[in-house]
């Protein structure tokens, strides 16, 4: 196995867990490093299993083949590991962060998140990245000695992708110079965390094209307006002029994904050569190093803008998400007024609004729909 680069997060140099644990049973050697152990804890968590019934763009019941938060997370992990291997980064850490990055997402995708943030505005707001951290730090109940999954510093750092300054200050007050410090001092997360952020964007742009065309809300003709797609579509038809149907779309997306991956690898190698960090901590002091080339960045940004206008804001998607938004708002109001409608572990907490947000954000689409029907009939 190729050794990790000096700028990668070295498992043996991990900053550890919030609660000290032996990394292996006393009677046996450890066959897993800390980040492999993190990955395994995430995969076995309740929150991870729920992702299979949480919306990505299209609501879970609208079609069996549309992406969910689960399949999206798996695709991010696959892309992330491929790039990490080429750059000699810590693949296990990349995989752990990728699999956990959406654990705090609400049901009904961004519509549910926006609705819950509006409901929580008087009580501190709601951030899905911060909620993902809450899930792994507090809300999972699997171990006798502590709440959460007790993940390593490096995995938790990668999960907290965004954080409002006010929340960063609160976290830093409890965990001085910890995972939120970078939002206050302007440093970067690990290269592995940076990689997951970019793999996330690559994955959802590609699979949203696939799901958008599959749904009939986007057409291949429309996609010709996007240079990043049109170029690979033309390449595909030039090489396979008789190709028809879904194979044209799949081959176009495959080529687009492949070139984006190679672009990230080459652009990041150039940035690493320029800044030459000698350790993971030195990489944190540099500007962001995992990146697209300037040209690919602009094309990726144009694709994202196209999808926002033509897919995420499509009248059919908006009609569905407007209903989902109302459902979350109504559920929040009911639970806030009648906490006893929640399980006792939530109903008995002193901070009722945050308990409601924790309970609601953990729901799958179909459970939220059933609860709404039960409570508003």
Automatic annotation (TrEMBL):
Organism in which the protein naturally occurs: Limnohabitans curvus
Keyword terms, alphabetized: Hydrolase
Pfam families: HD, HD_assoc
Family recorded in the similarity comment: Belongs to the dGTPase family. Type 2 subfamily.
GTP-binding as UniProt keyword: no
SMART domains xrefs: HDc
InterPro entries reported in the protein's UniProt record: dGTPase, dGTPase-like, dNTPase_2, HD/PDEase_dom, HD_domain, PHydrolase_assoc_dom
HD domain mapped to chain residues: 69-205
CDD domains tied to this protein: HDc
Gene Ontology MF annotations: dGTPase activity
Disordered: annotated span: 1-39
Protein name: Deoxyguanosinetriphosphate triphosphohydrolase-like protein
């Amino acid at each position: 196995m190729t050794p990790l680069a000096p700028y990668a997060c070295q498992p043996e140099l991990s900053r550890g867990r919030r609660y000290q644990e032996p990394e292996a049973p006393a009677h046996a050697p450890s066959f897993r490093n800390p980040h492999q152990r993190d990955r395994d804890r995430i995969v076995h968590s309740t929150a991870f299993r729920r992702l299979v019934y949480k919306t990505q763009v299209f609501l879970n019941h609208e079609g069996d083949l549309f992406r969910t938060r689960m399949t999206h997370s798996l695709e991010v992990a696959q892309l992330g590991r491929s790039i990490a291997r080429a750059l000699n980064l810590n693949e296990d850490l990349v995989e752990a962060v990728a699999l956990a990055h959406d654990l705090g997402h609400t049901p009904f995708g961004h519509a549910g998140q926006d609705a819950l943030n509006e409901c929580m505005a008087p009580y501190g707001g709601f951030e899905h990245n911060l909620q993902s951290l809450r899930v792994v730090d507090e809300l999972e109940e699997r171990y006798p000695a502590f709440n959460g999954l007790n993940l390593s510093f490096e995995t938790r750092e990668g999960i907290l992708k965004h954080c409002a300054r006010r929340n960063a200050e609160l976290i830093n007050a409890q965990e001085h110079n910890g995972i939120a410090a970078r939002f206050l001092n302007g440093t970067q997360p690990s290269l592995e965390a940076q990689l997951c952020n970019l793999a996330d964007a690559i994955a959802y742009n590609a699979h949203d094209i696939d799901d958008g065309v599959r749904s009939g809300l986007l057409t291949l003709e429309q996609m010709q307006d996007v240079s990043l797609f049109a170029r690979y579509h033309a390449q595909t038809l030039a090489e396979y002029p008789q190709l028809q149907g879904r194979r044209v779309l799949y081959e176009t997306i495959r080529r687009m994904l492949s070139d984006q991956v190679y672009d990230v690898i080459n652009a990041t190698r150039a940035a690493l050569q320029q800044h030459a960090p000698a350790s993971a901590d030195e990489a944190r002091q540099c500007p962001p190093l995992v990146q697209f080339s300037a040209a690919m960045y602009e094309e990726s940004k144009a694709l994202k803008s196209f999808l926002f206008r033509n897919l995420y804001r499509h009248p059919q998607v908006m009609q569905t998400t407007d209903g989902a938004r109302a459902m979350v708002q109504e559920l929040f109001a009911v639970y806030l007024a009648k906490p006893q409608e929640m399980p006792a572990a939530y109903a008995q907490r002193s901070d009722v609004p945050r308990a409601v947000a924790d309970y609601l954000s953990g729901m799958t689409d179909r459970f939220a729909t059933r609860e709404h029907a039960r409570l508003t009939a």
